[in-house]
Amino acid sequence: MTFYGGKIVLVRNIAQLAVYKTDKNTEALPLACLRGLFTEKASDIIYIIVERKLYGIICLEDILYHSDRNRVQINKRFISLIGYNVIEAHEIFKRRADINKIPIVNGQGELLGDYSRWDDGLFIERNQKRLMQKASLQKLVLPYEAVYVMEPVENGNPNFLCLVKYLDCFQIKYTVLKKAHIGEKISEKAIFIFLNEDERRGGQCVYRIAHCESDDQKKDALVKRGGQN
Q: N or C of the chain: less Cβ packing under 10 Å?
């Protein structure tokens, strides 16, 4: 995490990124190949690697609005930085409100990491002081019938462990939930607590993709019924 001009720019290394490797140039990928990455990684962007070089990106919007049924178009027009340059990253974020991630590559075009706009994280990290007070925490969860603490990608994250510790101490019932299961619980009168904004957006990806697939299945069923009549 880097501070610049009073703002924070989150630097993530390649191990933290959602990366899909393929050995051939292609215009689109099957959604089935990507679903697991949205589940496992806290990110709303997938980086496509061909022969060790950054080939393209796929964002949540690409899946929701530009996919052809079960195939997703790869966006090969994107802004990247050669080498780490937080000053330039900050300027790009300032100029382009539509950009939330900037990939970092080396001179050979190999992916090294990225800069993320969503560094100030919501939820546990930003609201830690309020969450760790018994009265405010009880007031927060009181209107809900269920409390779900979303399991973060980073095992042993201290902020996550701290929240769980206080929930236990205050005898507040909760369930640690994996992002892959959020679609099963979203209809409940429940509150979902995420570690930060990246985690929330990653969970949103999982839910919205599953929701779209469900809609497609319903449409297919209607088409089949229509054909039988």
A: C
